[in-house]
Amino acid sequence: QGQRQAHQRRAAMCSAAVEAAPALEGNVLAAYGAASASAQLPPFDKIEADQVVPAISALIDQLQAELEALEASVGEDGSGCQKWEDLAAPLETLGDRLGRAWGAVNHLKMVKDSEALRTAVDEVQPRNVEFGLRVAQSEPLYRAFRAMKDDSARYEALTEAQRRIVDSEILSAELSGVALTGEAKEEFNKLQQESAKLSTKFSNNVLDSTKAFEKFIEDKALVEGLPESALALAAQTAASKGREGATAEAGPWCITLDFPSYMPVMQHATNRELREEVYRAFIARASSGEVDNGPIIERTLEIRKRKAELLGFGHFADVSMSQKMADLDSALTLLEELRAAAYEPGVKELEDVRAFAKESGVDYELEHHDMTFWAERLREERYAYKEEDLRPYFSLPAVLDGLFGLINRLFGVTIVAADGEAPVWNPDVRFFKVMGEDGNQRASFYLDPYSRPAEKRGGAWMDEVVGRSALLGEGGATRLPTAHMVCNQSPPVGDKPSLMTVREVETLFHEMGHALQHMLTTQPEGMVAGIRGVEWDTVELPSQYMENWFYDKKTCMAFAKHYETGEQLPEELFDKVVAARKYRAGTMMLRQVHFSVTDLKLHSDYVPGSEGGVFAMEKEIAKTTSVLPPLEEDRFLCGFSHIFAGGYSAGYFSYKWAEVLSADAFGAFEEVGLENEEAVKETGRRFADTILAMGGGRDPNLVYQDFRGRGPSTEALLRHSGLAPATATA
């Protein structure tokens, strides 16, 4: 009760400070940042770019004063803090208030980008980074946590989650340079500032180079082969860019590098020249001129290597691994096991595509821009269906109904539409509430489903809006978590709903898995609730686990209904989709292994400034991870935002590491029988009570054993992929 009252007094003082500052009058972002860290959601519809700098600057000023007061109460040696709540409560409040406000800005930067917003973020970001370093490098706070750890009686008296927070705060401080002094600390902090700027610039360059490519086509012969949905999207894009009257039947059409536009060209366009032009533009994104990410990559790797040296590590990969389940050797060992299992199947898959193209009358050697096209033709013949045939059965409204039904079946919660109950940043954004079995609300989330290449970053992601916290709720209640799920799937065209590809359905299930871990946590400690404090190489477990349910017949057939007639997806067609899941599994596995190994090697073995640079190293790695060597001009790394503008640096392997866990976790349901409803329900509740509930408050190895009763095995992943285990080679 005492810590909650102290929190409320601080919130009241902050609100008063905003009201007293004339420069912030009418600034909704400032008011949101100063508000009590409660269930209030960001005013996304009212935040403007010109509010960002004054609001974030004022908030940091306030938090700086609070930090200094906390440090004074703790004392230089950390001995002034004897109670957990005297240290953890104010620190959680500090992080939460800045996280909510800056999170809202950063989110808008990714989904509603503008030049004004970029300028504002660029101006205030250094202060945000500086304050983050100030907190992370606080010696009084570090010593206070260190004192808790070193006093065995105090440490053991803490809950398991609180001990995890202590350990995490100590490690985080050490990795943030708390032990550095003098010139070393000054250098480290400068590198951290530069790194943040480079990450933002990298992301901007990818978005700008993607937007810059526009190919208008008026001759229908040039778009031959493109399915009706792709033509409709291309015409709609052309109309949005000033070509009024554009139609799917007569054009004109506009092709872009946005994935819903790019991929149909590679899969279906019969015109080789069009495929080649679009492919070469895609692999060259952000690799020349003012948007060239090549120098940014080189400098980023140089910075990371130097930061690792300052912290006493041999390379940055070891810095990354210090916060994960795996170490570098075990990650590389897993990747080699998967590579060895996938390589020969990958070679055979390439030979099959080439042979099929030759049988189909092709008299030229297949090149990179031909592979996806002919692989799709072979898949159509082998499994006797076209991807386009499936779209009418996967309208977004029906898929959501099916997904929500699955979640209710497995975890006992009900998802209900709550549109209009929270501010949104675009009219297409949906808002939902998650209700518990007792009828009380447990969480909420936003869904932003459609591609908007002019303002929205590509890809798909989930992030938190606010996290669950026993401290930061209102009136003694626990604050409930809110997430946002962002996808870039095909938008509605004309009066048709969004008709999804299989991959888009998988992606929606994937992001919902992330959101469920954030929303269904029962962890009261806000600093390790939901996805917070979860080791990065296990955070993909729930997301990849959820993808498996799309291929469960009972689940899929419950929602796979034709959007016009209501007819159910034919059972034989579903069976073909499941069989096709293993199509080119070796190639797909090698692709992910290539990304993962390249990431680890760049952050461990690469020496900045080496002859040939990062592109030479990537091509050397490709000799064992790719059955078709990349083109010399391939600059995929210039668009590899995961590791150069995201959180996956020396951590992309986490996708494969977690895929082993997720396949094995789904294996628990297969073992009890997917048709055994009671057993599925019981196993689902156990998954919810362990993997989804415990957050970062328990060691992930123990959490997994709580659910599975043993450690993970690669058997299920290789079985699902149709790849036989192989003996790993050095």
Question: Could you describe the 3D structure shown?
Answer:
The radius of gyration is 26 Å and the shape is globular. It has a five-stranded mixed beta sheet with strand order 3-4-5-7-6, with helices on both faces. Helix 2 (28-34) runs antiparallel to helix 4 (84-111), helix 5 (115-136) runs antiparallel to helix 9 and helix 23 (585-602) packs antiparallel against helix 24. With 730 residues, the protein is mainly alpha-helical. The protein has helices at 2-19, 28-34, 49-74, 84-111, 115-136, 139-150, 152-157, 160-175, 182-212, 228-240, 259-268, 272-283, 294-310, 316-321, 328-359, 368-383, 387-390, 396-411, 502-519, 541-548, 553-559, 571-580, 585-602, 613-625, 641-644, 654-672, 677-692, 700-708, 715-721, and strands at residues 215-217, 253-255, 414-417, 430-435, 441-450, 461-466, 482-489. Strand 4 and strand 5 (441-450) form a beta hairpin. Residues 5-20 and 726-730 have low confidence and may be disordered.
